[in-house]
Amino acid sequence: VKATCGDAHLGGVDFDNRLVDFCVRDFQRRHPGRDLAEDPRALPRLRRHCETAKIRLSSEVRTTVEADSLLHGLDYSCSLSRACFEDLNADYFRKSLELVDQCLQIGGVDRRDVHDVLLVGGSTRIPKVQAMLEEFFGRSDLLRSIDPDEAVARGAAVQAAVLTGEGSSQVQDLLLLDVTPLSLGLASSGGTSLKAEGGSEDADFAVL
């Protein structure tokens, strides 16, 4: 592992929130004086429908957010295009690509030297995300052979096999050299503390 980089506050739920906010404004525009907060079940229901719409827009160019009797018997239906979804989340998409670029800089790797790009996480199914990665790396052969929702679990299973000595000889020949993305701290009973900054550099520590 050369480097790791990310934003713990940026993920699929943020895309959902943008859709929810959009639909809430649309509902209030159609029904002035009505507030979805009046019913504690309304917003969770709307959120589920928005998440479903987000998933559908990965394979369709248009879908509908539809909730029967969303608030006090009022039905809600909104046609949503993929282009609208991309516009609502444009800043999140830009931020995601900035993190990719930042990770390469931390690891000292040129984008032209990257052999493969593996999609990990459900949000990498979003066509806009894939298109931006293809443009950024100048290639259209992103690795899609592994389910993005299973990629992390598969990697963990391989590492578990290495640690337990299970699996084929090919698995046992693997060696993972990871980095510490976060700071680690040690404290003694006397109050003395040691802080090791995380990063992409190799570091050895001895505690006596």
Helix content bin: 40-55%
* The CATH C-level class name of the largest domain: Alpha Beta
Uncertain segments of ≥5 residues (pLDDT<50)?
none
Distance between the termini: 28 Å
Average pLDDT confidence is: 87
Form type: globular
What class would the helix/strand composition place it in? Answer: alpha+beta
CATH topology of the largest domain: Actin, Chain A, domain 4
Beta strand %: 5-15%
- The string of secondary-structure elements, in order, is HHEEHHHHHEE
The profile of the biggest β sheet is:
2 strands, antiparallel
Number of helical segments with 4 or more residues: 7
Rounded to the nearest angstrom, the radius of gyration is 23 Å
How many E-type strands? 4
Task: Please state how the strands of the largest beta sheet are arranged side by side.
Answer: 1-2
Count of individual domains: 2
Quaternary structure of the protein: single chain
State the CATH architecture of the largest domain.
Alpha-Beta Complex
The H-level CATH homologous superfamily of the largest domain, spelled out, is ATPase, substrate binding domain, subdomain 4
Pfam family, one: HSP70
Keywords: ATP-binding, Nucleotide-binding
GO molecular function: ATP binding; ATP-dependent protein folding chaperone
Protein name: Heat shock protein 70
Describe the structure.
Pfam families: HSP70. InterPro entries: ATPase_NBD (IPR043129), Heat_shock_70_CS (IPR018181), Hsp_70_fam (IPR013126). This protein is 42% helix and 12% strand. With 208 residues, it is an alpha+beta fold. It has two domains: 74 residues, Actin, Chain A, domain 4, CATH 3.90.640.10; 72 residues, 2-Layer Sandwich (Nucleotidyltransferase, domain 5). It has a two-stranded antiparallel ribbon. It starts with 11 loop residues before the first helix and ends in a 12-residue tail after the last strand. The model has no long low-confidence stretch (mean pLDDT 87).
